[in-house]
Write a structure and sequence with these properties.
Length: 72
């Protein structure tokens, strides 16, 4: 799967970095397209919905897993 890659996102007008494996970045882009959102907008939505004690990268991975499973 490879090592996580860090990329910058803008959430609520603030820049932040998130480290995800390439497979998650690919599915994140696919999910954003399917939801009619930019990657930043989708990650903002995930950020708003997550438990404050859950790391953003973990919340994104879990959201993507649930999204992928719901499509099958």
């Amino acid at each position: 799967m490879g090592a996580p890659r860090k990329r910058s996102l803008t959430l609520h007008g603030h820049r932040t970095s998130v480290s995800l494996e390439d497979a998650f970045w690919e599915v994140l882009q696919e999910a954003a397209r399917a939801e009619g959102l930019s990657v930043n907008a989708l990650c903002t939505r995930i950020d708003e919905e997550r438990d404050p004690e859950t790391a953003l990268a973990s919340a994104i991975r879990v959201w993507l897993l649930r999204w992928a499973l719901s499509r099958h």
